[in-house]
Amino acid sequence: MILAAATIAVLLALTFGVIRALRGPTVFDRVLAANAIGTGAIMLLALLGFLTGRPEFLDIGILYALLNIIGTLAVLKFFRHGDLSHPGGEEPEGS
Amino acid sequence: MLWFAEMISYVLIVLGSFFYVVGAIGIYRMPDVFTRMHAAGISDTAGAGLLLTGMMLFAVSTNVSIFVIVKLAIILGVILFTSPIATHALAQAALHAGLEPILANKKVMIGPGAHAEPVKTPRKAAPKKSAKKRAKPSSAKRASKPSPRKRRTRS
Predict the structure, then answer these.
(1) pTM metric for this prediction
(2) Residues 68-107 of B with CB under 8 A from A
(3) Average pLDDT, chain B
(4) What ipTM did this prediction achieve?
């Protein structure tokens, strides 16, 4: 019962995140919302695993947690340098 | 002993859901990217931490295998380590792209051009407009500010 209520709360939070991802004025709002949606997906997987009596969903949760940070950093690097294979480091002025 | 762990887990899960929804409402309603990051931090630390700790105690009380608790602890550790990294990278990229945070004191400058001369902005009604208008990504777009203002006065 409590787990179902927590699942509904996480679904509500995911709805807010999706609205922000659709309406975000800049790309950084969308990246932030995507990060929040990823964390919400992990929470939803864990709660659904306990709710249905199959805690094996937690493996998928670990995978999502590891993919979330990589995806966020990749998108941010792409929008900063315009190229995923950019070596990074200091940039020339005015770029 | 087990019923005690179950009661504590219920309290933690309810508190975690509350903080999670509060953080999500903040992501939806805050006026700026940087303030939205602050709200996302609430749901990433307090919300996720309390929810996962509550689920760990729930797993203790229902006698599932020990690996479930270990996996929940791994998820909690990964989230607690990667969320600040993502927020730091996001703030750095947003500052690099020219987004300026909404400040009460306009003379304080943050970002790559922090030691340049402070921008002189008219004091009157400046905070309201910058709060209404979301920060534009580049200075080239900022030059075209007056056109929506005209449209607004016509309508």
Answers:
(1) 0.75
(2) 68, 71-72, 74-75, 78-79, 82-83, 85-86, 89-90, 93-94, 96-97, 99
(3) 77
(4) 0.87
